[in-house]
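pasting for the record
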Amino acid sequence: MIKEQSKKETGISLLALIITIIVLIILASVTYNLTLGQNGIITKAYEAKYLTELAQYKEELELFKAEKLLENNNFEGESLTSAYNSLIYNTQPEGETGTIYDVIKSLEGGTFDGKMEIIKGELLLNSQDMTEIRMAQKLDIQVNPYLIVDGVLLSANTNLALMDENGSLTIPESVRAIGEGAFADLTGLRTIVIPGTVKEIRQNAFRNNRDLENVILMEGIEKIGVSAFQGCGKIINVQLPESLTEISQGAFQSCSSLEKIKIPSKIETISAYTFYYCTSLQSVEFPENLKVLYNHSFISCSKLDNIYIPKNVTNIETSVFANCSNLSNIEIDKENPYFKYDANSGMLMTTDGSRVLFISDKVIKASNIFSIPEGVINFEVMLSQYTNITELVIPESLETISNANYFPDTITNIEVDSKNQYFTVENDCLYNKDKTNLIMCFSKDTTVELADSVKKLSNYSFRQAINLEEIHLPNSLAEIGSQVFSYNKNLEEIYIGPNVNKIVPLFKYDNYSGTVIVDVDNQYYTVENNILYNKDKTEIITILFEINGKFVVNSNVTSIGVYAFHSQDKMTEVELPDGLIKIDQAFNYCDGLISIYIPNSVEAISELAFANSNNLQQIQIDKEQGSISGSPWGAIRGDRIVEWLR
């Protein structure tokens, strides 16, 4: 009976405790809102204090101007400019000096000391504090919420503070460059006006601004940086100024609503991936001064149907117009001696016929046999999407194929001209002539035996071996290229022999099935817990499994290599050891990563360490500010997410 009563009392006590805790939480929440919340007592008190001080400054400024007008009726209020080491106005006596404290005496030692200027007779507040900004705006005091250092508008959380109710923002003329990631991934911005005083728009400046529709670039702008407008999917039209001399790699990549573009006359090169995946792009106008189209610059512009190549273009690189499925008319300037286009064959080629640069969609789809034309020396046209192709014919002239990814996985046969001195086929594998380099294995069997002479597996070399389950890699093998086994999800085991001395980290990219074994006698690599390391396990080469959640880096690791965590988008947290010294371009496309802490031991970080990790919002680094160069190390949002802890 006593036990039962004790249980009841205990139950009541626990219930009472829970209720008490809930009440306390509610009261704490109410107390917080009443005191510290946006409408809280303390917040309101600060606002009232700010308003009082700012109103006092305005009054003192007007009194100063009134006094100067009484002294000399030629005094002009708009001539008054003053800061913390200057005082200038049009009727100023010769030799008179002063500061802003001579105009606004109550400023010294006040809340806004160090934040105020007088420009053209009006007060200007320099602040990134949103409460201060709101109070200044209530009194019609001009506000500069930007963090500007040496003319560079840096990435900061207040960069949209002056945006109007329609989502429009004009960059101040005091800015000389828009900093890396300054407006990246911010919402609500629909129109941006950039004056000609801005000479440079830096890397990732407006990247992933998904609301941005109108970009107005004034004459005077000279450079658009890497990926500056990448992912701005609502931009329809951009007027590029004639002052522009450089458009960097990926500047308008994935601007999927962009319909037309006119390249200014001073632009001589179109950088790689500049208009990649601009799927609505219908019209492109090149300047006569254009000389080079770099690789993949217009790839997957599926609505582009007509292109004019000016007379001064001397080089068109790899797959510039790949996947431009509607492109059917290419006009070459009559004075251009470097290129030719044949409408019947649908091929854009160099005049000497040594390179194919583009083949029309209609021509490729017309047959299941693709014959590389005689005379072509190097083939690098993207055909991987054309699954109608089952046979490839290689002519006598062909010397190189850049990689197997240019071809579809439907290929079942390759015919090599008997006079060709560079290629040979054996057991459904395409090799170089002496069979030291595997270029493409197109076997559809589950098991593949390679030639014993193979020393190198070229990039994507098993792309077409879609049924592969088992493979024997000979001991002669020394080099494994990029994405060699990315498409072989049924491959159970990869044995890396004793003589392999070079492995591209992405050799098994996005393929986490099966296991990798490294021979114990290999002097360069080892595998432990499905992680590929260098031999002494001080460097992570690549992670061979899909990370879900948190990953803890081994304590003896001092270096994280290039692409070590590439595309690990389910990794939400990574713990780095205190002894870590170097981070290379390791965390690209890690979209699950929100925050990362970098220990004090780190001495070097690659400029692209966190490139394309779209959701990274915080980099905490246990170092003094600026002690490691390259900040924000490719992070899209720029320096506003970097926190130096010392």
